[in-house]
Specification:
Elements lengths: L12 E6 L10 E9 L3 E6 L22 E7 L2 H12 L4 E9 L6 E4 L2 E7 L2 E6 L7 E9 L3 E8 L6 H8 L22 E9 L6 E5 L4 H9 L1
Parallel strand pairs: 4-11
Antiparallel strand pairs: 1-2, 2-3, 3-4, 5-10, 5-11, 6-9, 7-8, 9-10, 11-12
Length: 226
């Protein structure tokens, strides 16, 4: 039996979710900030280091890598879940990310390189740019520069696994702290990739919804120190 809260959440409310374990293990509770809430969905701000497997989180309609923080949509009903999964499938949900990368971009760029599965490296799924891969497009806009790094806004128009990470590596600007596609060092606080924006036309409320997430404090600290 699943219990449904009768009191709606307000933006920036803190909620506690209990993850359904895949095996018989001690249940863990993780706190999320609710960025948007209505009778059909809620949008939560996932902390870095938390798995977002839809098999474990009831109602999730998409996912983020464990190392990526940011906005996730959770459906409250099966009808809403089907509707929002279809929006993602049809690329009708616009997503925005912030990343801190090595080096500098002179201008805005569009990376249009196909991505495919390479295999498993040290136990992790690994993807790369392959001629036989699936079409993948990411728009990059430089935001803030330091002597060695740049904070960029990333807007993918496709949704391939590890797309932004693979594309930035392919153009020689890997994400800082990305142990899979960047420098193999643990000297950084985290992988600096954050899903900071979602925009879509709500299929039930019939209006445009735009949700932003605050830039994580770790990003500000990194830019300030480097």
């Amino acid at each position: 039996m699943h219990r449904v809260a009768t009191t709606p959440c307000r933006r920036q409310d803190k909620v506690e979710l209990r993850l359904a374990p895949l095996t018989e293990q001690k249940k863990s509770r993780i706190r999320f900030t609710v960025m948007y809430d209505d009778p059909y969905i809620e949008v939560i701000d996932k902390p870095v280091g938390v798995e977002s497997d839809p098999k474990r989180f009831k109602g999730l309609v998409h996912r983020l890598d464990k190392e990526t923080s940011g906005l996730l949509i959770r459906a409250k009903t099966e009808e809403a879940q089907r509707a929002f999964e279809e929006l993602f499938k049809e690329r009708k949900i616009r997503k925005g990310y912030l990343a801190i990368v090595e080096g500098h971009f002179k201008n805005r760029v569009t990376i249009d390189l196909p991505i495919g599965r390479v295999g498993r490296i040290e136990g992790f799924e690994h993807f790369g740019v392959l001629l036989t891969g699936r079409k993948a497009i990411t728009h990059i806009k430089p935001m803030i520069e330091t002597p060695l790094f740049t904070m960029v806004a990333c807007t993918p128009t496709t949704g391939r696994t590890h797309q932004i990470r693979v594309h930035l590596k392919a153009v020689s600007h890997p994400i800082v702290g990305d142990l899979l596609y960047g420098e193999k060092t643990k000297k950084y606080e985290r992988m600096y990739l954050h899903a900071n924006m979602l925009e879509f036309h709500h299929p039930f409320l019939n209006k445009k919804i735009t949700i932003f997430s605050k830039t994580p404090d770790e990003f500000d600290r990194f830019i300030g120190k480097n």
